[in-house]
Every structure is written in C-alpha cells, then in structure tokens.
Amino acid sequence: MKPPPILETEHLRLRAPDLEDAEEVFATYARDPEVTRYLSFRPHQHVAQSRDFLRRCVANWAAEGPYTWLITRREDDRLLGVIDARPQGHRVELGYALGREHWGRGIMTEAVRAVIAWALGQPEIHRVWAVCDVDNGASARVLEKAGMEREGRLRGWSFHPNVSALPRDSWCYARVKETA
C-alpha cells in the first residue's frame, strides 16, 4: 500500500517532500522548542538536520514508508507543518507537527482528517491510530476533532526528550473502519 504523493483538502495540499524544502522545514517548525516539545526529537540546531530528515523521508517514499507529507497552503504552497502515515499491516499510525504561528486555526485537524479518510478508504486498512503525551492537550483536541476516540492511557509509552529522559505516558486515540 503506497499513498498518493499529494492529498488535497479545501484549504491544504499535503505533498511528498523534497530536499529543497529543508530551509522551510527548519524555519517553520523543526527548530522551534515549543513545536518539538512533545516530539521524539530535539529541535534542529542546523538546517543540515532538516535536510537529513528530508533525505530519509524521500528514501521512505521509495521504500515501504513511513510516508511523510509536508502540509502546505493550497493557494500558495506555503509550508505549515508535516504529517506522516506509518503503515503497520491493517493499521496506520499518524504523527504530525505544525508551525507555531499556525496553531489554533484548524489546520492540523483538516490534515489529520484527510489522512484518516485516505487510509480508511484502503481495503486493507481497518484502524488509524495516534498517540500524544498526556500533557499535550492541543494534540488531544486535534485527534478528537478529527473523529478519533480516546482508547486509553499507555503507561511509559513514548520518549519525549524535550520533556524528560524517561518514557512518558501517552493517550492512545483511534478510528476504526465501520464494518457492516
């Protein structure tokens, strides 16, 4: 299962990245300690780190994933953030980040809905899921607004090195394909 390199919504274009996006990725979200607070990596200190990330993303599109899209404004391709889909058999896990200046505008909810719709439209996919740190209320609201249900607390699930050196509890959210 390989997703399309472009997904479009009313306001957004999710597109596969290329190496030329490195400066924008760095400037928009990858270097920001607030954006990366609950992510699994520390803020990028140099654009070369963003370029290495994009190099892996491009290679993953040529392989079996995970598949990363840059979230851009449909009208002018301005970079807003990133979202990825990690296929795992009959499941797809989501991860995302959004530039701080774009928070609170419904952008990530729209992007998450688009990826959920695409994934659950695949015959072999029956579950789309994501986790977020128990202290990351904004991410929890995104997942809920996108139609996912909180399934429970995963104890010691995720490393968020910008918060703690120890694994942290996460909320697990999912949306499951309706069966007749």
Topology:
Elements: E1 6-8, E2 12-15, H1 22-30, H2 47-62, E3 67-73, E4 79-88, E5 91-98, H3 107-120, E6 127-133, H4 137-145, E7 149-158, E8 168-176
Parallel strand pairs: 5-6
Antiparallel strand pairs: 1-2, 2-3, 3-4, 4-5, 6-8, 7-8
Helix pairs in contact: 1-2
Describe the 3D structure.
The chain has one domain: Gcn5-related N-acetyltransferase (GNAT) (Aminopeptidase, 3-Layer(aba) Sandwich), CATH 3.40.630. The protein has four helices and eight strands, in the order E-E-H-H-E-E-E-H-E-H-E-E. The chain has helices at 22-30, 47-62, 107-120, 137-145, and strands at 6-8, 12-15, 67-73, 79-88, 91-98, 127-133, 149-158, 168-176. With 180 residues, the chain is of the alpha+beta class. The relative contact order is 0.17. The longest helix is centred in the first third of the chain and has 16 residues, at 47-62. The model has no long low-confidence stretch (mean pLDDT 96). Helix content is 27%, strand content 32%. It has an eight-stranded mixed sheet with strand order 1-2-3-4-5-6-8-7, with helices on both faces.
Number of strands: 8
Kindly name the structural category.
Answer: alpha+beta
CATH superfamily: Gcn5-related N-acetyltransferase (GNAT)
- State the distance separating the first and last CA atoms: 23 Å
Number of domains: 1
- Outline, from the CA principal axes? globular
Features:
180 residues; alpha+beta; Aminopeptidase; globular
Sum this structure up briefly.
The chain is of the alpha+beta class. The chain has helices at residues 22-30, 47-62, 107-120, 137-145, and strands at 6-8, 12-15, 67-73, 79-88, 91-98, 127-133, 149-158, 168-176.
